[in-house]
Amino acid sequence: MSFEALGLSTELLRAIAEKGYTSPFPIQQQAIPPILEGRDLMGSAQTGTGKTASFTLPLLQRLMTSTKHEQGHHPIRALIITPTRELATQVAESVHIYGKYLPLRSMVVFGGVKIERQIEKLRRDNDILIATPGRLLDHVRQKTVDLSQIEILVLDEADRMLDMGFICDIRKIIAQLPKQRQTLLFSATFSDSIKKLSKEFIKSPVQIEVTPSNSAAESVDQIAHPVDKQRKHELLAYLINKNNWQQVLVFTRTKITADKLTKQLIAENIPTAAIHGDRSQAARNKALANFKSDKVRVLVATDVAARGLDIYQLPQVVNFELPNAAQDYIHRIGRTGRANNEGKAISLVCIDEHKLLQAIEQLIKQDIPQITLEDYTPDPNIKARAINWNSRRKNPTPKKSTNQIKKSAWDR
Q1: To the nearest whole number, what is the mean pLDDT of the chain?
Q2: 117 sits in which H/E element
Q3: % residues pLDDT > 90 (the chain)
Q4: Which residues of 101-110 are buried (b: 16+ CB within 10 A; e: fewer)?
Q5: In this structure, are residues 184 and 152 in contact, taking their beta carbons and an 8 Å threshold?
Q6: Helical ranges in 123-190 per DSSP H
Q7: Global pTM value
Q8: Angle separating helix axes 326-333 and 354-364, nearest 10 degrees
């Protein structure tokens, strides 16, 4: 099938061709026609499957054919909500690339930058607004944004927004929107919580599930290296140098570990940068830009900060620490092997993480080969600590306010 067969306009086809795409991905083939028809839609697809274009392309076309486009004043008519700043930026870039030959204006708002500048831009005519929930709700409260003319709502990576505790913000935002609108929801999986959410906001949606739920990318070669916890950074430096990796994304569970590992790799003369919630937006943007331009070889990231990162042909991902939630493993390795390119996912697993590895294997329904490197054989005298990864829920710390909890989740 060709993009022409999907019924897209000449202007969009020109932008697609300049991007170098010749045929649509499965998610685009299935999603674009019903969206163009004005249907509500729920789409489930892994990262790297062309999901963003599957809603930005038909969204742009529908805005161009809308009668409101003929008016002199351009109210915000499409709202795209994403869980993180990085994903918001990525979606905004997609809207700009595909809409370059259309007279439509868009802007993006997220936290971590001065709100005054955003308020100034919101006073101008904008057809499309891409936003993260927290900052958008700030604008709603300050009455600096008008959402009364929204024709199309997109909830991108809805599962992650639920995980990050944004459901209350989402409900408050949607309460500001017209009841008569088109709603598109995209999620990695159709979990029970996502299905429950969809019943609140979506009317008789077309459901699309491109890949089996909880499946790992077939184009990603997955292996695990057993190693003692204290020697992980040493093994990582060895792998980078031995294999001459020029670009590798490394995941840690915490910001503290990300910063510590970054310093250790720099000490090994390996150009490295970290990206997490404690870094300013400018620092995060600079780290990502340097990584994409090969100025740094290693980008160390936490799960939330890396959500939505789109790095073309990223060759390998390393799990320096396995995630507490097995589902996050799928999101992590989805950073590589995108768009049918080959990729590698290497996990450095200490004895304390064996149960986490088992949970991941159970989720993806396959065994991850374990290869012990000769000089890094784990010390058999080291015993696993008795760790209950859910113990913090059973023995909670003193209650925090709702705002504190959201900030904690946002800045992981």
Answers
A1: 85
A2: helix 115-122
A3: 57
A4: ebebbbbbbb
A5: yes
A6: 133-142, 158-163, 167-174
A7: 0.65
A8: 70
Write down all domains in the chain, each with its CATH number in brackets: 4-209 (3.40.50.300), 220-376 (3.40.50.300)
81, 308 Cβ separation under 8 angstroms: no
Query: CA–CA separation, 152 vs 181, rounded Å?
Result: 6
Give the pair of three-digit tokens for residue 356: 């986490």
Please tell me what DSSP assigns to residue 340.
G
Helix locations, 280-381, DSSP H: 281-292, 303-306, 326-333, 354-364
For residues 120 and 116, what is the distance between their CA atoms, to the nearest angstrom? 6
DSSP state of 384: P
Q: Is the pLDDT of residue 229 over 90?
A: yes
Residue 107 has pLDDT above 90, yes or no: yes
**Nearest-angstrom CA–CA distance, 278 and 269:** 24
Give the DSSP per-residue string, 196-233.
HHHHHH-SS-EEEE-S-TTPPPTTEEEEEEE--GGGHH
Place of tokens 């015993």: 383
The predicted-structure confidence for 195-223, as pLDDT tens digits, reads as follows: 888 888 898 999 998 765 555 656 689 99
Q: How far is it, in rounded angstroms, from Cα 24 to Cα 54?
A: 9
The CA–CA distances, whole Å, from 303 to 2, 120, 249, 277 equal 35, 32, 11, 10
Residues 252/264, Cβ–Cβ less than 8 Å: no
* Single-letter amino acid, residue 176: Q
- The predicted structure's pLDDT at residue 305: 62
Q: Between 195 and 133, where is the model more confident?
A: 133
Helix (H, G, I), strand (E, B) or coil at 390: coil
Least confident residue range of 134-143, 241-250, 332-341: 332-341
User: What one-character DSSP code corresponds to residue 296?
Assistant: -
Cα–Cα dist 54/45, whole Å: 11
Tokens of 306: 């890396």
Q: How far apart are CA 26 and CA 131, in angstroms?
A: 27
Helix, strand counts (H, E) of the chain: 17, 13
Q: What are phi and psi of 236, to 5 degrees?
A: -60, -45
Q: Among residues 338, 251, 342, which one has the least CA distance to residue 52?
A: 338
Residue 10 or 339, more confident: 10
